[in-house]
Write a structure and sequence with these properties.
single chain; 2 domains; 6-stranded mixed sheet; binds NADPH dihydro-nicotinamide-adenine-dinucleotide phosphate
Length: about 280
């Protein structure tokens, strides 16, 4: 039986909204499996309280994750940060060492590992359409460029935000689509949805895959208990697609390692999500 002592470390997901998050499921399953003395909870948090929450958690020996919409704000509250934070301008994982707050963006490595799991090989040479330009899209872009994709076209509702991403991370292999017309009749090896479209039941699709000449594979970063609308739209067209659960597991496994200095139990985390879906 799992015992949580009075010394248990509290790890918290800070964001708003947080109701849809499956992080508590995978992290508590990992804590049960490894016998670590900790507990993982979701805390709805407004931006003006983010600093107090992070400081309190770290001072009491804990840490946590940051989600929508605080990943960029969190960077300004860190004392030390990883290269992934520096390159993406976003932080999704924090912990404390000697009173200082350390941060990482495990979405970069999480996406990289999930994509490899999906492809079964490196994405080197792929032509990619990346939809979205928020914190998650920046992590995806860094991982894709590091892994040698041929080029990335970014499409976002706000073109200025996409251009800002190119200025921050950019390089010769990245371009911004000015409108949805730019992607019509194009060929893409991989389409990634890094927008939040699909979290809400009434959301429209991020892009209409049927308007493109060909699409090899689809990755949707959205996670929910069941198929996402974008994954379904791909599968209806005969395109192999994967939702955000594998990335959630992989980024969570890297975060677990930051907090506990031992690898997160990926298979246990995967099983915990399967149980959640089948119990719904
Ligand atoms: P941000 O808030 O930083 O970015 C949201 C993105 O969605 C922006 O590109 C925004 O466009 C776009 N968007 C939102 N609403 C609409 C709309 N109505 N029409 C068109 N575009 C819209 O969020 P994140 O980047 O942090 O997260 C994006 C998604 O990725 C979320 O669903 C999140 O849950 C998921 N995610 C999944 C992870 C996983 O492990 N599976 C990890 C991290 C994120 P604009 O710039 O124009 O506002």
């Amino acid at each position: 039986m799992r015992v949580i002592t009075s010394n248990a470390r509290i790890l918290a997901l800070l964001g708003n909204p947080i109701d849809h998050s499956l992080s508590p499921v995978i992290q508590n399953a990992a804590l049960r499996e490894t016998g670590m003395d900790g507990i993982y909870v979701s805390l709805r948090c407004e931006e003006q309280y983010l600093m107090q929450f992070m400081h309190s958690l770290v001072r009491s020996g804990g840490g946590g994750n940051i989600t929508i919409p605080h990943k960029e704000k969190a960077v300004s509250l860190l004392d030390e940060y990883s290269e992934a934070v520096e390159r993406t301008g976003a932080c999704n994982t924090f912990w404390g060492i000697d009173g200082k707050i350390y941060g990482d963006n495990t979405d970069v490595e999480g996406f990289r590992r999930a994509l490899r799991y999906f492809l079964g090989e490196s994405p080197k040479g792929l032509k990619v359409l990346l939809v979205g330009a928020g914190g998650a899209a920046r992590a995806v872009l860094v991982a894709l460029l590091d892994d040698g994709v041929e080029d990335v076209l970014i499409l976002n509702r706000s073109t200025e935000r996409a251009q800002a991403v190119v200025r921050l991370i950019g390089g010769e292999r990245v371009r911004v689509a000015e409108s949805y017309l730019d992607i019509r009749d194009n060929n893409f090896d991989l389409v990634v949805n890094a927008t939040s479209l699909g979290i809400g039941l009434e959301d429209k699709l991020p892009v209409d895959l049927s308007k493109m000449a060909s699409v090899g594979l689809v990755m949707d970063l959205v996670c929910r208990t069941g198929t996402t609308p974008f994954v379904k739209s791909a599968e209806d067209l005969g395109i192999r697609a994967m939702d955000g659960r594998e990335m959630l597991i992989q980024q969570g496994s890297v975060a677990f390692e930051r907090w506990w200095k031992k690898p997160g139990p990926v298979e246990i985390m995967r099983c915990s999500l399967v149980d959640t879906v089948t119990n719904k």
